[in-house]
What does this fold into?
Amino acid sequence: MCACCGTRPGVVAAFGPTGVSTGFTDLHLWADPHGTSLCEPCAANYRNPVLRQEPHWTADRVTWHPADRAWLRATLAAPLDRVGVTIPVRRRKHVWHHTQLGAVGYDDGTITWGDTEAAAYRLCVTLRAAGLSEAGLTEPDLRFTDLRAAVDRATVLDLWQQWRATTANRLDLQQIAVRASRPPLEAP
It folds into this structure.
């Protein structure tokens, strides 16, 4: 069986050119961390660098589809139920293998995407549209430069207080919301 998903027969070597590198650190998340083979869908997903660079979604955990900004804004604004979404925050790590349906997978794990997470994402999108910087949204206090650039400062202050109340102890949620509101990676 596939060492990663445990649901399909393993047909290619789990390590090396057809699988993951020998330095892969998320083996503990596999169905069989000591397995030696991967099924073709899992091997193909590991070989696809775009899966660890840009957001994607799935309805079956096998086939992954690119998630553009419009799709993310529409989908993450509500709780997830029938899809799983990947948001690679640092764009270097495989996150698809531990993403579940109804959740968002990111570099350090997976979080169930419910009402609180959807509300925080909507706040993030609104604050970004008001001119707040990506870095400013992860700060403990509102940056004066961000406030000064805002057209409606009173509204931005109110939204900022809601944002901090929702995400103050949720670095995972901050990272996901901010990354999901970021423009796509530029082609080299």
Notes: The longest strand covers residues 103-106. The two ends are 38 Å apart (CA to CA). The first helix runs from residue 40 to 47.
